[in-house]
Amino acid sequence: xxxxxxxxxxxxxxxxxxxxxxxxxxxxxxxxxxxxxxxxxxxxxxxxxxxxxxxxxxxxxxxxxxxxxxxxxxxxxxxxxxxxxxxxxxxxxxxxxxxxxxxxxxxxxxxxxxxxxxxxxxxxxxxxxxxxxxxxxxxxxxxxxxxxxxxxxxxxxxxxxxxxxxxxxxxxxxxxxxxxxxxxxxxxxxxxxxxxxxxxxxxxxxxxxxxxxxxxxxxxxxxxxxxxxxxxxxxxxxxxxxxxxxxxxxxxxxxxxxxxxxxxxxxxxxxxxxx
Length: 275
Hints:
The protein has 275 residues and is of the alpha/beta class. It has 2 domains: 2-138, 3-Layer(aba) Sandwich (Rossmann fold), CATH 3.40.50.2000; 155-272, Glycogen Phosphorylase B (Rossmann fold, 3-Layer(aba) Sandwich), CATH 3.40.50. Helices cover 36% and strands 14% of the residues. It is built from 10 helices and 10 strands. It has helices spanning 5-14, 46-52, 56-71, 84-92, 128-138, 155-164, 190-200, 215-223, 239-247, 258-265; strands spanning 21-25, 40-44, 76-78, 97-101, 114-116, 174-177, 205-208, 231-232, 251-254, 270-272. The strands form 3 sheets. Strands 8-7-6-9-10 form a 5-stranded parallel β-sheet, with helices on one face. It has a 3-stranded parallel β-sheet with strand order 3-4-5, with helices on one face. Helix 1 packs parallel to helix 5, helix 6 crosses helix 9 (239-247) and helix 7 packs across helix 8. The longest helix has 16 residues, at 56-71. The two termini are 24 Å apart.
């Protein structure tokens, strides 16, 4: 999701008066809601529908959801995710022009009628942001700058971070460690994090962050370290507070995970650790 935000900026720059809607699953909606470049966020309640199962009620809700999309009479639909489910929704939107790359995963391009040159999605020489921006370029939008449009941080979030960071040493750099990711294969070894904590703690404010589910992992990491000089904010920040925390940090160290991309979007240096 974060990687696609530069496309939004480019399209809004090219089409300042266009109506731009964004279809997104509920789990990723927060990063888009209240974004000033988007006219409407259409939140697909995947979690709710999954819990309901394939019932008559779910089918009715899905039908109504698609009806809302089609009533907007979109001229163009762009499938950035390029999976079967996103391709299906692109088709069901009713847009006359449906744009994505050719030879997508899961045969999703069968729903597309304007296809860009195919790419190997795992090509290390073709970053995903560049691949996404090709769609904007195809539509005549400028892609000479990569700008991430994050939701604005309100005073409540700023005050919450003020309180959490009240006791850190303002004369030291602040390093945020984000050790967890939803993909175990992307985890950096716990003892590596412990060694890193010991090396960083004497000269930096070291802050761990993550969800409440990451507390046990962080406790295991810190228990193996020699220092107790760190602050754990796991489970204590929402998305907007996390953005504000990154705004105040000097560097963020994380595996290949969403918070690393958010840190990059705040223009803070982000180091991605791999095993």
